[in-house]
Amino acid sequence: MNEHQAHEHGTHEHETYDKLIGLLDERGAAYRIIEHEPEGATEAVSAMRGNRLEQAAKCIVVMVKTGKKTKRYVLAVVPGDRRVDLGAVKALLGGGYAGFATPEVAERLARSVSGTILPFSFDPELELVVDPALLEEDEIFFNAARLDRSLALRTADYVAIAEPRTAPIAA
After folding, report:
1. Per residue in 46-58, pLDDT tens?
2. What is the pTM of this model?
3. What are the DSSP calls for 43-73, one per residue?
């Protein structure tokens, strides 16, 4: 990555962060910003933030083939102590195959780097699906499109603003 690409990449990341904070402020959401050492792994960053793994929103972009030449992308959000059940995501969309999107596709659709993907979709190509177990928590935690900053967001506000489709997609 050259200096220009690094700058573009960094700018993209901060645009997504700024867009999220703007949206949360505009909607009057209750959230806290948590600064920490740069980290994208759910277990490690949860320890830094002091949240239980079940409260962490693990966000994975999944590609589902729904026809010979058609595919859909799902932003699968599950509790941090669980894994995304690709079979459940595939069945939910009536697909023939489901797999993890390539890092390039995931980062383009999520508008942030892997490890910082938000449990919000700002791209019409990316369908948001959340496992209901995560929504049982009063507050959810996630990296805020940055490796060095997380948010603790009231779950009721998350649901009201993100309007996710909910389905059991965690294993």
Report:
1. 999 999 999 999 9
2. 0.91
3. HHHHHHHT--GGGBEEEEEEEEE-SSS-EEE
